[in-house]
């Protein structure tokens, strides 16, 4: 159990650091109201989860440690769906209904397409 906890923690730490760096770089070059950093991380995270699930599903037993490190840890630390919800709540509170609708719609549809694409490419 300790090994699994360490794998998830290591992957989560790396994912969280990469998520932070993505946010810093995106904010440096993007000043629009649309939360581009979270959007990009969520779509890329969905793509990576699809790709990893597809790649590691052929022999789940042999790849359990990789699944914990990469899917549970890294992708869990990298993606930011709770931030997504919080940002949408803020947009709605500030009456930016169109921006919120665009953000919600493109995130959900783009995420589903990205997971499908990742799974398709992994085959």
Automatic annotation (TrEMBL):
It catalyses: fluoride(in) = fluoride(out). Na(+) is not transported, but it plays an essential structural role and its presence is essential for fluoride channel function. The keyword Cytoplasm does not apply. The chain crosses the membrane at residues 5-21, 33-54, 66-84, 96-119. Pfam families: CRCB. It comes from the Bacteria. It is a multi-pass membrane protein. Keywords: Cell inner membrane, Cell membrane, Ion channel, Ion transport, Membrane, Metal-binding, Sodium, Transmembrane, Transmembrane helix, Transport. InterPro entries: FluC (IPR003691). Na(+) binds at residues 76, 79. It is found in: Cell membrane. Its main location: membrane. Belongs to the fluoride channel Fluc/FEX (TC 1.A.43) family. Fluoride-specific ion channel. Important for reducing fluoride concentration in the cell, thus reducing its toxicity. This is Fluoride-specific ion channel FluC.
């Amino acid at each position: 159990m300790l090994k699994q906890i360490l794998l998830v923690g290591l992957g989560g730490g790396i994912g969280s650091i990469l998520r932070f760096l993505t946010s810093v770089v995106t904010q440096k070059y993007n000043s629009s109201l649309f939360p581009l950093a979270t959007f990009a991380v969520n779509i890329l995270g969905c793509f990576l989860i699809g790709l990893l699930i597809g790649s590691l599903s052929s022999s789940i037993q042999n790849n359990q440690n990789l699944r914990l490190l990469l899917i549970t840890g890294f992708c869990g630390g990298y993606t930011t769906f709770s931030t997504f919800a919080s940002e949408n709540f803020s947009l709605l509170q500030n009456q930016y209904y169109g921006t919120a609708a665009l953000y919600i719609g493109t995130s959900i549809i783009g995420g589903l397409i990205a997971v499908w694409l990742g799974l398709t490419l992994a085959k």
